Amino acid sequence: MAPIPGSVKRYSGDMDLGERCAYQVLGKGTPVYSSDGQSVGTVTHVLDVPSEDVFDGVIIDAAPGGGGHRFVDADDVADIHERGLVLKLDIAACADLPEPSANPGVMRANIDSIATGHSDDRHAKLRRAWDLISGRR
Q1: What CATH number is associated with residue 47?
Q2: Burial letters for 3-20: b for 16+ Cβ neighbours within 10 Å, e otherwise?
Q3: Does 135 have pLDDT greater than 90?
Q4: Measuring CA to CA, how many Å separate 102 from each of 50, 105, 130, 134, 137?
Q5: pTM, full prediction
Q6: Which domain holds residue 24?
Q7: Short-list 11, 42, 9, CA closest to 28
Q8: Contact 120/107 with Cβ under 8 angstroms?
Q9: Is the dihedral of CA 56, 41, 79, 77 positive or negative?
Q10: Is 114 part of a structural domain of the chain?
């Protein structure tokens, strides 16, 4: 059976998230799902640089009732739909998403990230995330 366009396969069936769309459509409260179809939380902020049309990632609220902000890098986003955001990470990996902070440290340092500068990219993204949620931006 072919997958239904615009849906995410779950153990319990298909969940219609609508058409795929651009990051600009994401709004506060958009549901976020892991790659294995589990609810991870909701979008609280979209991190972008509009003047350069760059999508950096999102801040999600991963705790029921608020207070569980986590940073999701754009590289960890699999699909953006009208009614949901799907991550490349399974539910276990989502538990390790970092909190935005004023002085983010290196989250995952390996030879590839050091050679390509990805650690610095994530540092800058986390700083922008903190500035956004703390009211500096």
Answers
A1: 2.30.30.240
A2: eeebbbeeeeeebebeee
A3: no
A4: 22, 10, 6, 9, 13
A5: 0.69
A6: 7-96
A7: 42
A8: no
A9: positive
A10: no
95 Ramachandran zone, left/alpha/beta (phi>0; psi -120 to 50) = alpha
Length of the chain: 137
The candidate with the shortest Cα–Cα distance to 43, out of 59, 63, 25, 21, is 59
Tell me the sheet residues that pair with 85: 32, 80
Q: Does 112 fall in a domain?
A: no
Q: What is the pLDDT of residues 67-99, one digit of tens each?
A: 689 999 999 999 999 999 999 999 999 999 998
The residues pairing with 42 across neighbouring beta strands, listed in sequence order, are 31, 61
Q: Model confidence over 36-56: pLDDT tens digits?
A: 999 999 999 999 988 888 999
> For position 7, what pLDDT does the model report?
52
Per the domain annotation, does 66 fall within a domain?
yes
| Total domain count, the chain | 1
Q: Is residue 2 assigned to a domain?
A: no
Taking only the tens place, the pLDDT of each residue in 63-74 is: 766 668 999 999
